[in-house]
Structures are given as structure tokens and as C-alpha cells.
Amino acid sequence: MELSKDLVAASSSPLVxxxxxxxxxxGYAILxxxxxxxxxxxxxxxxxxxxxxxxxxRLGHIEARWEVAETGRQRKYYRLTDDxxxxxxxxxxxxxxxxxxxxxxxxxxxxxxxxxxLGEPAPTRHGRPSLA
Length: 132
Hints:
The chain is an alpha+beta fold and 132 residues long. The chain has one domain (5-118): Orthogonal Bundle (Arc Repressor Mutant, subunit A), CATH 1.10.10. It is built from four helices and three strands; from the N terminus they run αβααββα. It has helices at residues 5-22, 27-37, 46-58, 82-118, and strands at 25-26, 62-68, 74-80. A hairpin with a 5-residue loop joins β2 and β3 (74-80). α1 (5-22) crosses α4 (82-118).
């Protein structure tokens, strides 16, 4: 299954903020963590991640610092700010509202579909079979 670009884009900020809430991290490690969290269904590229990181930094949700890695190379680490933690909490509330709405509508649609598949009368809103 391939996720739509719109869904991947919409989920990028809350994913990055949540990953940085676990621990400070750098670009490649964030890419790996997204892939791990999504069981490989979300495959970001550098070209997708770094604009998100730069935007979150510009908004004050994350801060960046350079460190020398064990390999001797410079690596840019990102950390969540207090403002970023507040933003992450807000994003969680918003995504939970979307999730609840979708579960509500899809749950309501599953019962009639399942009933039709099994050849049973579909329940109505009041739990009684429909005469239709």
C-alpha cells in the first residue's frame, strides 16, 4: 500500500516532533525512525525531511546544533523546544479528533457492509434490523 502524498505531508510535522520528543536526533536517524515506526510504509527522502526540519526550526519548535560524530564528520542534531512540546501536544489533539471521526464513520459503515456480506438484516441506529 502506498500512502498518498497529502497524508504523508500532513503527518510530517507531528511525526518529526514526536520522534524528537523521544530524543535529540539527526536527519538520517529521523528517516530510519519514520521507516521503523511505519513498518516501512512511509519512506521519506532527504528532500522531503529537510524542508520540514527547517520550517519547524524557523517556527521555534526545534533547535539545531552541530556535533562531531564518532566518524569525525560534522552532524546536525535537532532537539525539541518547549514551544515544540506544546505544538506536539496540539498536533496530538488534532490527530486524535480526526482519528475519532474516521473511526466513527467507518465503524458505522462496517456493520451494514458486514451484514450484507453475511446475508443478515443491517442494524439501524437503534440496533434493530432495517426492513429495507
